[in-house]
């Protein structure tokens, strides 16, 4: 990562699972720099004026994937509201570069919402990711406080549009709990995601990165995560990952295999 000048969300977002994932050679690469144009109340990624887009980044990413022999790759990014396409072309170029160097690898993208960027979603989907992920992050009532630069309905529409445009691509989304949501609101988010035909749901406990971020309103008991898992399965999600330490890309490679198996009806969810 250092030699090829690549960033990881594992480090920038202070993920609690970093040691485990890196020990297993799993990392989520964060393209388009390490500075975000938004300032979400939960996120540890730096906010400010981003650097210019690195034209060599897709090739550097492809080199890293090839050298590490990765079977499944997760690509995310900071929000780049300063770019006309929100960074969509860099996602597409990264997917293309990986396909050229490591055609056996499966690719998962975790994108921003691309608000007010016409054609951005279609640019990413045309590059052919295997999984399209966009996180809702929290319940709609808390958006103004937790995710002020985003819009809940827009994010839902993005996921629905992705599934309608490319039905064969798995869609995925996730939320954090402990930010002040109520249990019934979590169930309502599940319903909204199933209307959007999302295949895979993740739910994890929010952990406060620093004292300047949104405070933890509650620590959810493991039994509640188990109840949400059952509720999500009953609603028809192909795969559900709901535990205190679940994060969007945690065990992404194994979960992709679970998605494939669930779609084929081979194994239980």
Instruction: Could you tell me the CATH topology label.
Output: TIM Barrel
Q: Element order, helices and strands?
A: EHHEEEHEHEHEHHEHEHEH
The global form is globular
- CATH superfamily label: Aldolase class I
Describe what you observe in this structure.
With 269 residues, this protein is an alpha/beta fold. It has one domain (7-264): TIM Barrel, CATH 3.20.20. It is 38% helix and 16% strand. It contains ten helices and ten strands. The chain has helices at 9-12, 18-23, 57-68, 88-101, 120-126, 143-146, 152-165, 183-195, 222-235, 252-264; strands at residues 7-8, 28-31, 35-36, 46-47, 72-77, 106-110, 131-133, 170-177, 200-205, 239-242. The strands form two sheets. The protein has an eight-stranded mixed beta sheet, with helices on both faces. α4 links the parallel β5 and β6 (106-110).
């Amino acid at each position: 990562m250092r030699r090829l000048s690549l960033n990881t969300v594992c480090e920038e977002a202070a993920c609690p699972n970093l040691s485990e994932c890196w020990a297993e050679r799993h990392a989520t690469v964060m393209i388009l720099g390490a500075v975000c144009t938004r300032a979400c109340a939960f996120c540890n990624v730096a906010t400010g004026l981003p650097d210019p887009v690195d034209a060599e980044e897709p090739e550097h990413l492809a080199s890293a994937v090839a050298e590490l022999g990765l079977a499944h790759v997760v690509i995310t990014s900071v929000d780049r509201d300063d770019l006309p396409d929100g960074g969509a072309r860099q996602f597409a170029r990264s997917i293309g570069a990986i396909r050229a160097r490591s055609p056996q690898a499966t690719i998962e993208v975790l994108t921003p919402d691309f608000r007010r960027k016409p054609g951005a979603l279609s640019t990413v989907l045309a590059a052919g990711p295997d999984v399209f992920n966009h996180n809702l992050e929290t319940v709609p009532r808390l958006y103004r406080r937790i995710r002020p630069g985003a819009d809940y309905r827009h994010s839902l529409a993005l996921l629905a549009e992705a599934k309608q445009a490319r039905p064969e691509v798995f869609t995925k989304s996730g939320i954090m709990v402990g930010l002040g949501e109520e249990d019934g609101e979590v169930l309502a988010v599940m319903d909204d995601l199933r209307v959007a035909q999302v295949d895979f749901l993740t739910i994890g406990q929010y952990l406060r990165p620093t004292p300047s971020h949104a405070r933890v309103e509650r620590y959810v008991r493991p039994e509640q995560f188990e109840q949400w898992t059952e509720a999500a399965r009953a609603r028809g999600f192909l795969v559900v990952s709901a535990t205190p330490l679940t994060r969007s890309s945690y065990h992404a490679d194994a979960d992709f295999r679970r998605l494939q198996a669930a779609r084929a009806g081979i194994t239980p969810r």
